[in-house]
């Protein structure tokens, strides 16, 4: 062992890089041409220093529980995080800054930092032992999609037949009907429970009516490093982001409905529209790492990266190989961590001899989306493949011509836009609906479900890929276990009542109820409920466990099909001790129509008042105004037919304390 270590150290000394060798050709040329000009660069670090085991011992210090649960689709429990998840060593950052480096972004995945530095300082930084490589950050020359006034009698739009579908899609019916989204909405599927990340140029008009019911759980401006993703007094305008967000998740009946209107959203402003070459890929990389840590399930991005500032050659079509651009490498790594990544193929149009893609659409695990017209013909601007290593690109197609979007300037206005910027959120939103039905699908399984049932699946090519997606066909083609919509547990005196609902059942044999005490490892069967057979209608089940004593208990369902296959539900936890705190829980379901359950717990016998208000603070109804016993309580709120759809608030006051939750009523 001593001989090996000595040889290893000797080899490091022999082959150690000189400072000059640490610069890429692009960076070296740029610094030599403009030595006094500060350049935006990547500085890649050699290691993450010591004391890393603490992160592996406590993975929740680097990512959320939701992120860990999503990763478990791919990874074993003892390898849910790896070296790429660990933070960049702070002492290294401090030393770089002390030399004059202006920090912009951090990348745990690449163990790198981006920022601004001149030639003189860059050479000093290159001499540091912990610095591995210095490269330029890629930028994009912005190509704007066309935005037009919405014409009610446009030949690109078809009229929705009356009385056929659950929702009135207005002029957005054409773009959704082409990929068969309304059929899944009719079955009650809308991406509820899925978290979607939308990365764009900012979101200028979140006050638009189409976003009134949208559940935005996080937002960050990576251009200006603040939480305002709209048009503040800083760099970048967000009309493009407003358009794409409305396409994937807006909801206004009779006007515009996005495929994934019931999903939760993470918004990231990653593009600076103020400059001639506005987009830096380090913003996107920072955004995907941030979204991963929160627990994003799927991302939609309508941006692409191709060229550096003139006269330096940036990425070429030969570089669209899935292994060159850092943003592409990051996108593929995100997929390995269980995130489904959708990206516009690009608006560079057709070339007879090579691809016209923009990174990260070239990623082997990224779903690149091209654009077609309402009639299914490829649009002239839609980028084509294939990659240099002959992989099929684009992967799939959706409507990208005259797509109905929310106005960026009028909170009740709508327009049409054209570009792969809009085919991508349509396809990504449809995929999110599928993921909501089959949450255990890996990103690759999700992509396969879409490509194998698309219109050109038998003869994929470089212009259409596998063709226009058909999410109904993808849904029907996937193996269908018991489709669980909800599974909840509640305390009722000295027993626990389990309730669950299935959206529909195919080949359902029954449910085995399993219970674990003080942990999630030693499961025992405590009951069996026979299924109600093959049906396409929602079914409701319940089970009461009376064998209780104080402590923490966990329940899950082993869902068994007639062919002997089975899968497990989510796990619900019950604390049978007396509640130790006053707590108002999020209503379920949410969004809802017409009814929802509001749950809360009381640490003592006390007077309780539960009131529902609208957005204007007007009292709608008092659901409770009485003395209640300590413990768990549930009260049903029914909106009826008189209340309009929108945001409502439930306020609970008890024992001198007050708590409020936001509820979404969809109509």
Description of the structure:
The chain is α+β, with helices and mostly antiparallel strands and 667 residues long. Residues 1-15 have low confidence and may be disordered. The protein folds into 4 domains: 2-49 and 89-137, Alpha-Beta Plaits; 168-477, Peptidase S8/S53 domain (Rossmann fold, 3-Layer(aba) Sandwich), CATH 3.40.50; 480-577, Immunoglobulins (Immunoglobulin-like, Sandwich), CATH 2.60.40.10; 578-667, Immunoglobulin-like. Helix 10 (281-294) runs parallel beside helix 11. The strands form 9 sheets. It has a 7-stranded parallel beta sheet with strand order 8-11-7-13-14-15-16, with helices on both faces. Strands 21, 22, 24, 25 and 26 form a 5-stranded antiparallel beta sheet that branches. The radius of gyration is 27 Å and the shape is globular. The protein has 14 helices and 33 strands. The longest helix has 18 residues, at 420-437.
Write the layout of secondary structure elements.
Elements: H1 2-15, H2 25-33, E1 39-45, H3 53-57, H4 65-71, H5 90-98, E2 102-107, E3 112-117, H6 119-126, E4 131-136, E5 139-140, E6 146-149, H7 173-177, H8 181-186, E7 195-200, E8 215-221, H9 239-249, E9 251-252, E10 256-257, E11 264-269, E12 279-280, H10 281-294, E13 298-301, H11 326-336, E14 340-344, E15 367-372, E16 396-399, E17 403-406, E18 414-418, H12 420-437, H13 443-451, H14 471-477, E19 483-492, E20 495-504, E21 508-517, E22 524-530, E23 539-545, E24 552-561, E25 566-568, E26 572-575, E27 583-584, E28 595-602, E29 606-614, E30 619-628, E31 631-638, E32 646-654, E33 657-665
Parallel strand pairs: 7-11, 7-13, 8-11, 13-14, 14-15, 15-16
Antiparallel strand pairs: 1-3, 1-4, 2-3, 5-12, 6-18, 9-10, 17-18, 19-20, 20-23, 21-22, 21-24, 24-25, 24-26, 27-28, 28-31, 29-30, 29-32, 32-33
Helix pairs in contact: 9-12, 10-11
